[in-house]
Amino acid sequence: MTKKGPSGVNLSFLAGLYTRVAKQTGVHPSYVSRVARGERRSDRISRAIASELTQFLPAGTSAEGGEANSAASSSEYRERLIRRLKGNPQLNKLSAMVMDLATWGHPKEITRVSRVSLQSRIAANAVMIATSMEHFHRMSRKLGDSPHVISLTDSDGVVLYSFGTTGMVCDQGAVPGANWSRDYLGPSAAARAIAAGVPLIIVGMTDQTEGLLPVRMACPIRLGNGEIAGVVVLSIDLSPARAEHLLDMAKMARKICKIVESERKKPSRMHPRSQVQPFVDAEVHLARVMLMPEIDQGTRAHLAGVLAELEEKRREFLLNGGGSPSKRTRSGSAKAQSV
Questions:
Q1: Is 228 exposed, middle or buried (0-12, 13-18, 19+ CB in 10 A)?
Q2: What is the reported pTM?
Q3: pLDDT by residue (tens digit) across 209-252?
Q4: Is the CA virtual torsion 17, 21, 26, 29 positive or negative?
């Protein structure tokens, strides 16, 4: 029996609305339901729901008035958010920059570095990647159902690792190997954080059609000698964006910095690391990333190719005489004794 509302109107057309909106926006249907009930706020999802509902308006009915009110409300909320961020004393203490970029220009296809380049970058930053994973997962749980992507780039702005809402990593151009040294899909928060050397927040457009999240936060991982080892970047929707997110990222960057600096001191010990160890570390970390359920099939296939090439390079390195100095010394001693 078809369920009807109090006025006897057939409401069967609403079946599957949340699922359709969830597929369009890349979030879970339960989050769409919460936005519809007012338990969560997301301008992007609200617009998608409104767009679905307009398909069922009677002929001759115009939705322009409602869309205009929604756009005005989003614009007002955006202005209030920028004022709150600029007036936050804790952000001022961090010397954080708040950038109002209402016009992002025309999005271009983001470039990627070669697989060989990505392999070397992952091997060189294996410790930083491994350390960031736990912090990224913790922050993602804190953000809950809000659409978001957390990324780690190296000192050149190349993405090394990303985590967040399922299916949004590719949409936001945060696949490992993506080169964010310049502006592609909107302004690059990573490139600006590297250039400025301070945390920053970019508040972009709210009426996007490309599905890009409008708020981007970035915090550089600055070592004691002033060198920037990498950048932590958060892409998030307008409504859930808070100053506390950048403050949490600053704490995260300091913890990652301590681990990276302590690791860089280890090669000076009496027992040096094997030269092949970075390859092994990178393979282990890549395998862990591929096993995560949040990673989509496209990213997993790309990482599988990188992992295969890493293993091949490691074998070539060993065949060419690579490895720990101690092994080479022992083999040399054995040959001398046999002579």
A1: middle
A2: 0.63
A3: 467 888 999 999 999 888 999 999 999 988 889 999 999 999 99
A4: negative
Taking the CB of residue 68, how many other CB atoms lie within 10 A of it?
A: 10
Q: Which two tokens stand for residue 6?
A: 């109090």
pLDDT band at residue 193, thresholds of 50, 70 and 90? very high
pLDDT band at 8 (very low <50, low <70, confident <90, very high): very low
Helices (H), the chain: 17-25, 29-37, 43-54, 64-86, 89-93, 115-124, 126-143, 168-171, 189-196, 243-264, 277-290, 297-319, 325-338
Smallest Cα–Cα separation from 48: which of 170, 239, 208, 166?
208
Q: Answer positive or negative: Cα dihedral of 256, 257, 258, 262.
A: positive
H or E stretch covering 218: strand 215-222
pLDDT at 20 (0 to 100): 80
Query: In which residue are the tokens 């002033």 written?
Result: 226
> Can you say whether residue 229 is alpha, beta or left, with left for phi > 0 and alpha for psi between -120 and 50 degrees?
alpha
Residue ranges of domains in the chain: 16-62, 95-265
CATH number of 95-265: 3.30.450.40
